[in-house]
Write a structure and sequence with these properties.
Length: about 500
């Protein structure tokens, strides 16, 4: 047996899987960068760092990291408000925070975030991506806010109808989307090539063959696109708005990566994810991306699932996919200039559509309408306001719902007509349900002795205890026996 086979028993499977992931990642890296308002090469840089740097670190063995559609909206807003140089500083600090949280063993706590909030976040992002990329597919500039993007679609459609160049751009985008949607119906041998890549290649060939008046990717060159951080970039970090953006990057990138890790673990029987280590790996990758002035990274479920499905066995597959991205960026950068922008817009429309959890909303509506409302409210808030505020609103609603459910209380009154009235209270007595408790107690007859049994309570907070003692004192007037209270 050769030494290579002995030391790397799964090399053949990992090489094959790495090529599949590379082909899946290539159009997405470029598309996410263009949609984020940064040079296309920076998307490749983040993909390279996600493969080689994060891929080498411990955490999750088969999860693949890179630029994600889920951060597109946040990055676009950050670049538009603070400028491209400041993006590197924001990503670097977010990466350092992830490293700190991983060192403090906070990674596992991200699994405690309500799934409805995460899915609502992804749904809101998906809606904003779709709306924004519809403008790009028509060769138009999209409005800044999510609400304006959606509200302006009818006017954009009317403008496209009367344009001389928009029809060709829309046709390229629509054709690309049609190829992506129909690709899974083709024979398995054909589907060995990822649908997104095949669609972009076909759109490029059609655009070149017919010389269509369609905008293509602007190429700057890999080395020219990388802008290592200077001291000037850190001056923006004193702004409260920038601090909020850093926290949003940290929270969203971490949550998306760790939720992806949990999903990937369900796809294979290999080693389980070590969440704190994975959070540190993501932080290290983002710190490097920030230092290079590139896009932030997260673990990406599309690439990760492709990696597992392609038969990857070790982390070597994700590292090699980063190597292939590096070779492409170094040897074939001019190929990017041939890619039509409407084709990338169609790829991102498809990615945005997949972010919207239609099945989960329907399932939650039938099983837990409170969670379904939190999901919808989070998505609407992200579209109407912005990413950070939308997520905070979702988290606040989740906390309120949990607190409300945790304060569930039940009161049973037994009155046999003579003797004391027995009131049995069970559940959790918190200040949230204090008005209900007092209303029920104050409705009892004032001239009858009462036995208040609180032994069924799981929790009695200070506010409720004080209020119940005050009620008992008021009820125990002259001529009435003192209220007998049994406390837990």
């Amino acid at each position: 047996m050769s030494p290579t086979v002995t030391t790397c028993p799964h090399l053949r499977q990992d090489v094959a899987a790495s090529l599949v992931v590379f082909l899946v990642a290539l159009p997405l890296c470029v598309g996410v960068a263009v949609a984020s308002g940064v040079p296309a090469e920076l998307g490749l840089v983040t993909g390279i760092v996600g493969g080689i740097v994060t891929g080498l670190l411990p955490g999750s063995s088969l999860q693949v990291s890179g630029p994600a559609a889920g951060l597109t909206v946040l990055v676009f807003d950050a670049v538009g408000e603070f400028g491209l140089p400041a993006l590197g500083a924001i990503v670097l600090v977010a990466g350092l925070l992830q490293l700190l949280m991983g060192a403090l063993r906070l990674g596992r706590w991200f699994r405690a975030i309500s799934l409805s909030v995460v899915e609502g976040m992804l749904a809101g992002i998906g809606l904003v991506i779709i709306a924004g990329q519809l403008y790009a597919a028509a060769g138009m500039k999209a409005p800044a806010s999510g609400a304006d993007k959606i509200a302006g679609l009818p006017a954009a459609f009317a403008g496209a109808v009367g344009s001389t160049t928009a029809p060709a751009s829309i046709a390229v985008g629509a054709g690309t989307l049609a190829v992506v949607l129909s690709w899974r119906r083709l024979p398995q041998k054909v589907r060995a090539v990822p649908g997104a890549l095949a669609a972009v290649v076909l759109a490029t060939l059609v655009t070149l063959a017919f010389d269509l008046p369609v905008a293509t990717v602007e190429v700057h060159g890999l080395l020219d696109s990388i802008q290592p951080l200077g001291t000037d970039a850190f001056g923006e970090l004193a702004s409260p708005a920038v601090i909020g953006t850093v926290l949003a990057f940290t929270l969203i990138a971490s949550a998306e990566s760790l939720f992806s890790a949990a999903a990937v673990d369900r796809m294979h029987s290999g080693p389980r994810t070590r969440y704190d280590k994975e959070l540190m790996a993501q932080g290290a990758g983002n710190a490097v991306c920030g230092a290079l002035g590139a896009l932030p990274m997260t673990a990406v479920i599309v690439r990760s699932s492709a990696n597992v499905a392609a038969g990857a066995r070790t982390k070597a597959s994700r590292v090699m996919h980063g190597v292939w991205l590096l070779l492409f960026a170094a040897l074939l950068p001019s190929a990017l200039a041939l890619i039509p922008l409407p084709a990338l817009a169609a790829i991102l429309v498809h990615a945005g559509w997949k972010l919207i959890p239609f099945r989960q909303v329907a399932s939650l509506w039938h099983g837990n309408r409170g969670e379904a409302l939190i999901l919808v409210a989070t998505a609407v808030a992200i579209v109407a306001l912005n990413m950070f505020e939308g997520v905070l609103i979702g988290l606040a609603l989740s906390v309120v719902k949990t607190a409300w459910e945790a304060s569930h209380i039940k009161m049973e009154v037994m009155d046999q007509g003579s003797g004391p009235i027995q009131a049995h209270v069970s559940g959790n007595a918190t200040f949230l349900r204090l008005p209900k408790i007092l209303d029920s107690l104050e409705s009892l007859p004032q001239d009858r002795p009462i036995e208040l049994d609180l032994s069924g309570l799981h929790h009695l907070d200070h506010a409720c205890r004080t209020a119940l003692e005050s009620w008992a004192e008021r009820h125990s007037t002259a001529g009435t026996e003192p209220v007998k209270v049994t406390i837990p």
